[in-house]
Amino acid sequence: MEDKPRILIVEDDHDLAEMLSAYFRVQHYDVATAAWGQEAVRLSQEQPFDLIVLDIRLPDIDGYEVCRQVRARRQTQDMPIIFLTERSERANKLLGLELGVVDYITKPFDLQELRLRVRNALIRAARQALLNPVTDLPEGDLVDEHFEALLRDADPWALLALSVHNLHHFREHYGFVAADDVLRAVALMIRSAVSEHTEDSESFIGHIGPESFIVSAPLAALIAVRERLETRLNQSWAYFYPAHDRHRFDAEERPDDLLYLSAVLVESSAGAFDTPAALRAALSASSTP
Length: 289
Prior knowledge:
By secondary structure, the protein is of the alpha/beta class. It has helices spanning 14-26, 37-46, 63-72, 90-98, 111-128, 141-152, 167-174, 176-197, 219-236, 276-286, and strands at 6-10, 30-34, 51-55, 81-85, 103-106, 158-165, 204-209, 212-216, 260-267.
């Protein structure tokens, strides 16, 4: 049985909350409700929701503060939120957009319109879930689809597996934001190197893990891409660190907890790969230090 989309309706008007809950249940949604802002924050932390329908006027904290607290947690920072409000002033809408609200509907509203807005927000979120939230590169099913296409094709192929190592040490010392900045920078360097040596139609870049990348392109291009990336990143790693820690890269015996890149080429001649899972396993094993 297909899982139902799970939505949280945050509305202090009991009758309206009950009506919306009943309506969306009939539309085959799994629905939870909250009448208080702090209750909504707690529920969003305790249960996985696909979307929140959030009233701005609440008895304790307002919908803006609920949104801020939801966005502040890494596990829920990308959860789609639709604001319900009686306010139609432009300034309030802009504040909601600044907080990352995906849609905004003013009371009184048409139920069919709300249903379509919820559906469209969930569709957009599902599409976005196929991209890594930090780098916006394909991952998961999109990468497997590319692998399936390679395996169906009788022509030889080559893949370049790239992994950033020791990012967990970096994250522990400098935080999630700094670690995400490292991944974004590496992704940009990969894109740049690939664009220098290939045409868009003959290359593919994606993730095979949170800190591991895959590049598909002609073998000669991948060799050039690997050399380019190793040169650029060897020159750049120190600059991801605060100035007072960069001296560690100049030590005669470099500490083993510093960032570095592994880059491994895997060709179709390396073995019999029957499924995307088998290919993923080979790539992951190749990129393990």
